[in-house]
Amino acid sequence: MHLEIDKLIRFRETDIRQPIIIASAHYKNPVCVEVGVNEGVHAEVMYALLRPTVLYLVDPWYGNQQPIVDNKFKEKSNVALIPEYSEPASKNFGSESVELVYIDANHEYDSVKLDLNCWYSKVTIGGMLCGHDANREGVYTALDEFSKQEELRLNLSDNARNFWFIKEQSRCMRP
Question: Among the CATH numbers 3.20.20.80, 3.60.70.12, 3.40.50.150, 3.40.50.2300, which is that of 2-169?
Answer without folding.
Answer: 3.40.50.150
